[in-house]
Request: fold
Amino acid sequence: MAEYATLSEALPRQQLPSPPSRPSDAAAEPMAASKQYRVKNVDMKGRIIHVGFLEVSEIGVTFSFEHYPAEAIHWPLNCIRRYGVNAVTGVLALEVGRRAPTGEGHFGFRADEADEICTVLDHFTSSSGRLWQV
Reply:
Protein backbone atom coordinates (compact mmCIF):
# COMPACT_ATOMS: atom_id res chain seq x y z
CA MET A 1 0.00 0.00 0.00
CA ALA A 2 1.34 3.43 -0.89
CA GLU A 3 2.28 5.84 1.85
CA TYR A 4 0.37 9.10 2.14
CA ALA A 5 2.45 12.09 1.10
CA THR A 6 2.49 14.85 3.64
CA LEU A 7 1.59 18.33 2.52
CA SER A 8 4.90 19.61 3.90
CA GLU A 9 6.82 17.20 1.68
CA ALA A 10 4.65 17.92 -1.34
CA LEU A 11 5.68 21.55 -1.77
CA PRO A 12 8.13 23.78 0.06
CA ARG A 13 6.33 26.68 1.72
CA GLN A 14 7.69 29.29 -0.68
CA GLN A 15 6.31 27.40 -3.70
CA LEU A 16 2.73 26.90 -2.55
CA PRO A 17 0.47 27.84 -5.46
CA SER A 18 -2.66 29.85 -4.96
CA PRO A 19 -5.85 28.37 -6.38
CA PRO A 20 -6.95 29.71 -9.74
CA SER A 21 -9.79 32.18 -9.84
CA ARG A 22 -13.24 30.91 -10.63
CA PRO A 23 -14.23 31.08 -14.28
CA SER A 24 -16.74 33.85 -14.96
CA ASP A 25 -18.72 32.56 -17.89
CA ALA A 26 -22.25 33.93 -17.70
CA ALA A 27 -23.47 31.38 -20.24
CA ALA A 28 -22.20 28.43 -18.19
CA GLU A 29 -24.68 26.27 -16.34
CA PRO A 30 -24.93 27.40 -12.70
CA MET A 31 -23.22 25.06 -10.26
CA ALA A 32 -23.74 24.64 -6.55
CA ALA A 33 -21.56 26.79 -4.34
CA SER A 34 -18.28 25.35 -3.16
CA LYS A 35 -18.25 23.56 0.17
CA GLN A 36 -15.60 23.96 2.88
CA TYR A 37 -14.84 21.37 5.57
CA ARG A 38 -12.56 21.35 8.61
CA VAL A 39 -10.11 18.48 8.18
CA LYS A 40 -6.92 17.01 9.60
CA ASN A 41 -4.20 15.89 7.20
CA VAL A 42 -3.02 12.50 8.47
CA ASP A 43 -0.28 10.02 7.62
CA MET A 44 -0.78 6.27 7.04
CA LYS A 45 -0.68 5.61 10.78
CA GLY A 46 -3.40 8.17 11.46
CA ARG A 47 -1.09 10.75 13.04
CA ILE A 48 -2.15 14.35 12.49
CA ILE A 49 0.26 16.29 10.27
CA HIS A 50 -1.68 19.51 9.58
CA VAL A 51 -5.06 20.96 10.51
CA GLY A 52 -6.97 23.12 8.09
CA PHE A 53 -9.88 23.45 5.71
CA LEU A 54 -10.66 21.46 2.59
CA GLU A 55 -12.73 23.31 0.01
CA VAL A 56 -14.36 21.37 -2.82
CA SER A 57 -15.60 23.34 -5.84
CA GLU A 58 -16.16 22.95 -9.57
CA ILE A 59 -12.53 23.89 -10.23
CA GLY A 60 -10.89 21.53 -7.75
CA VAL A 61 -9.98 20.75 -4.17
CA THR A 62 -8.06 23.25 -2.04
CA PHE A 63 -6.45 22.64 1.35
CA SER A 64 -5.86 25.79 3.42
CA PHE A 65 -3.68 25.58 6.51
CA GLU A 66 -5.52 26.65 9.68
CA HIS A 67 -2.69 28.85 10.99
CA TYR A 68 -1.52 30.06 7.55
CA PRO A 69 -4.76 30.67 5.60
CA ALA A 70 -2.96 32.60 2.84
CA GLU A 71 -0.99 29.46 2.02
CA ALA A 72 -3.06 26.84 0.25
CA ILE A 73 -2.56 23.79 -1.91
CA HIS A 74 -4.89 23.37 -4.87
CA TRP A 75 -5.55 20.22 -6.85
CA PRO A 76 -7.55 20.78 -10.07
CA LEU A 77 -10.29 18.17 -10.57
CA ASN A 78 -8.55 16.79 -13.66
CA CYS A 79 -5.48 15.94 -11.50
CA ILE A 80 -7.44 13.87 -8.99
CA ARG A 81 -7.19 10.25 -10.08
CA ARG A 82 -9.19 8.53 -7.36
CA TYR A 83 -10.76 9.25 -4.00
CA GLY A 84 -12.69 7.41 -1.36
CA VAL A 85 -13.34 6.93 2.32
CA ASN A 86 -11.82 4.07 4.29
CA ALA A 87 -14.75 2.32 5.94
CA VAL A 88 -12.71 1.35 9.01
CA THR A 89 -10.78 4.55 9.77
CA GLY A 90 -13.08 7.11 8.15
CA VAL A 91 -10.10 8.73 6.41
CA LEU A 92 -10.74 10.44 3.08
CA ALA A 93 -7.99 9.44 0.65
CA LEU A 94 -7.10 11.47 -2.45
CA GLU A 95 -4.79 10.13 -5.11
CA VAL A 96 -3.42 12.83 -7.41
CA GLY A 97 -1.42 12.44 -10.59
CA ARG A 98 1.96 13.74 -11.62
CA ARG A 99 0.51 16.85 -13.27
CA ALA A 100 -0.87 18.09 -9.95
CA PRO A 101 1.00 21.05 -8.37
CA THR A 102 2.18 18.71 -5.60
CA GLY A 103 3.24 15.99 -8.00
CA GLU A 104 1.99 12.45 -7.77
CA GLY A 105 0.90 11.26 -4.34
CA HIS A 106 -1.70 10.04 -1.90
CA PHE A 107 -3.12 12.42 0.68
CA GLY A 108 -5.21 11.44 3.68
CA PHE A 109 -7.69 13.64 5.53
CA ARG A 110 -9.74 12.88 8.63
CA ALA A 111 -13.07 14.68 8.66
CA ASP A 112 -16.44 14.15 10.28
CA GLU A 113 -18.03 14.78 6.88
CA ALA A 114 -15.76 12.49 4.80
CA ASP A 115 -18.71 10.80 3.08
CA GLU A 116 -20.25 14.18 2.26
CA ILE A 117 -16.94 15.35 0.75
CA CYS A 118 -17.00 12.32 -1.57
CA THR A 119 -20.59 13.10 -2.54
CA VAL A 120 -19.66 16.70 -3.36
CA LEU A 121 -16.65 15.47 -5.38
CA ASP A 122 -19.02 13.14 -7.27
CA HIS A 123 -21.22 16.15 -8.03
CA PHE A 124 -18.34 18.19 -9.46
CA THR A 125 -16.72 15.41 -11.47
CA SER A 126 -18.20 14.29 -14.77
CA SER A 127 -17.45 10.63 -14.10
CA SER A 128 -17.34 9.30 -10.59
CA GLY A 129 -13.81 8.90 -9.34
CA ARG A 130 -15.16 6.84 -6.46
CA LEU A 131 -14.24 3.62 -8.25
CA TRP A 132 -11.48 3.22 -5.72
CA GLN A 133 -12.44 0.92 -2.90
CA VAL A 134 -10.42 2.05 0.12
Observations:
- Residues 114-124 form the longest helix (11 residues).
- DSSP finds two helices and seven strands in the chain.
